[in-house]
Design goal:
Layout lengths: L9 E2 L4 E3 L6 H8 L2 H5 L10 H13 L7 E6 L5 E11 L4 E8 L8 H15 L5 E7 L3 H10 L2 E12 L2 E11 L1
Parallel strand pairs: 5-6
Antiparallel strand pairs: 1-2, 2-3, 3-4, 4-5, 6-8, 7-8
Length: 179
């Protein structure tokens, strides 16, 4: 258990999923501040400033297993921050949550997003006893769709003009995985 945030440490083959720490601020700004991260995510603003990073870290440090949002810093085997993976809108009454993730573009294509997402999915099913996990991605972000399919998610819907990004409405695919 990480005493700073009340979250467990999740170890995968090559990654450590942990609470964000104040020491992550510079790397968080460097990674989340890239337009390519904000371009295909809803919750990451652009530009992503140091103030945004500190607010992100502070929120993360207040999250516990009882929270409705649990976000993990994805760190490589050296402990360096390389991304984010988490659960949003956790609804314990109905046993469901939403999976979200992003990885430093310099680290993409190496299986880190899959490994981190799988770690969070296993945590949701095993530790939180979640029954259903959903995930969304903009239709132009097919890499996320491929990753979700590889995790065993099934596409359940196509939501026309579901989100607005850079002033344009975007279609979104909805995926889900049952325990």
């Amino acid at each position: 258990m990480n005493p700073a945030a009340g979250l467990p440490l999740i170890r995968t083959e090559r990654l450590l999923l942990r609470a964000f720490a104040n020491a992550d601020a510079d790397n968080l700004v460097r990674i989340a501040g890239q337009r390519s991260i904000a371009d295909t995510t809803i919750s990451v603003p652009h530009p992503f400033t140091r103030a945004d990073a500190l607010q992100w870290i502070e929120r993360s440090q207040s999250e516990t297993l009882a929270s409705d949002h649990i976000g993990f810093a994805v760190a490589d085997h050296h402990g360096e921050l390389i991304g984010y993976a988490g659960l949003h809108d956790i609804n314990r009454e109905h046993g469901q949550a939403e999976l979200a993730f992003w990885i430093d573009p310099m680290r993409q294509g190496q299986g880190f997003a899959f490994e981190a997402a799988k770690g969070v999915v296993n945590f949701a099913f095993d530790s939180l006893e979640i029954h259903r996990i959903c995930a969304y991605h903009m239709t132009r972000n097919e890499a996320s769709g491929k990753l979700l399919k590889k995790l065993g998610f099934e596409q359940e819907g196509y939501l026309r003009h579901r989100v607005r990004k850079w002033g344009q409405f975007e279609d979104v695919k909805l995926w889900a995985l049952l325990r």
